[in-house]
Design a protein that fits this description.
Number of helices: 3
Largest sheet: 4 strands, mixed
Number of strands: 4
Bound molecules: FE2/S2 (inorganic) cluster
Number of domains: 1
Order of helices and strands: EHHEEEH
Helix content: 25-40%
Strand content: 15-25%
Amino acid sequence: MTHSQVLVCQYQNCLERGAAEVLAAFLAHSNVTAIGVGCQGQCNMGVTVQVLPDEVWYCRVKPEQVEAIVEQHLKQGKPVEDLLHPRFHPRFG
Ligand code: FES
């Protein structure tokens, strides 16, 4: 497990899309450091999640997708491509 920090937006638009449940799903993993933060400026793509220090952004995250982020990204260091925010991580090819 890396020393990643997971920022989960807890502002209006993201909350309406289940941000509290997403944060709770991260916090259910005792070895994950997750904190609720204010608006990340990506409201139309919420729930917005950022992983630091990697500066990897995820969008439209649902609670049931948290497991994949924890297992693949936080434990194995491989970002979950399907959930990457296209504004920060444009797809090539
Ligand atoms: S409300 Fe979550 S990014 Fe703005």
